[in-house]
Amino acid sequence: MRLINLNNRLALEIDGRAVDVERASKGMFSAEFQDTFERWDDFRLWARYVDGVNGVQFQPDELGAPVGIPRQVFAIGLNYRGHAEETGLDIPDTPMVFTKFASCITGPYGDITMPPGAVDWEAELVVVIGPRAERVPVAQGWDHVAGLTVGQDLSERNLQVKPPAPQQFSLAKSYPGFAPMGPALVTPDEFAHPDDLEIGCSIDDHPVQHARTSDLIFPIAELISYLSGILPLLPGDLIFTGTPAGVGFAHTPPRYLEPGEVLTTYIEGIGSMRHRMVAGQAQQ
């Protein structure tokens, strides 16, 4: 099952066409993603019997982020061995967790305005929680996944490491547009091997990151078990699972995004996002 956000309405993508969920269900389910995540098991049962006969064609620029308004957004640092090595930091023995604020979520296509500073890219697989998860064993972790989508954990590195204590991760990663996601939310059953997906990104079609999600130090089920052992994961919550090697600050010399460049991010079986970087106004 592929879910899309078409003009701010929840839709099923079937054979390249969009089926509006609220209309097709005659109001049984609303046009809001968050409402659907709260009733995820019922929704999945209903969606089995929907076909694309009454679907409509759509354009990529009509798509928004295929998520609701999450109450919690988790992000995992240093979760690919290659990325940990390129930073010069030790491989963590437990997940390194921070957050991004929900106001930075945007869709899979369009312009992203860059703040002044050093804006870096981080291609990521994003997990959306379906049924509430609390103290979940690793073996049951995937039972709580509504779907997977493509994400970018864009980061302004100057603020992120600003002295005296380099701990502004959440703010530096939450400028408007710094959490693009899409183009679809894909349920785990659509993948032959959901723990082993190709991921990468390019700048002006020049590859800068490439890996497989099987390289994650802490796979998805382990992340869900770890996080849910500390606090409940709620329907619609997001987990940015980490980025592979190849980020800009690890280049010699460091290389950051420039106005006019086009950032393309993809994950096997989900699709691609494409964003043009636009210069923002200098701070007064």
Automatic annotation (TrEMBL):
SUPFAM superfamilies membership: FAH (SSF56529)
Gene3D superfamilies reported for this sequence: Fumarylacetoacetase-like, C-terminal domain
Protein origin, superkingdom: Bacteria
UniProt entry tagged with the keyword Hydrolase: yes
Record-linked Pfam families: FAA_hydrolase (PF01557)
One GO molecular-function entry: hydrolase activity
Ranges where the Fumarylacetoacetase-like C-terminal domain occurs: 73-277
Key words of the record: Hydrolase, Metal-binding
Family (UniProt): Belongs to the FAH family.
Protein name as it appears in the record: Fumarylacetoacetate hydrolase family protein
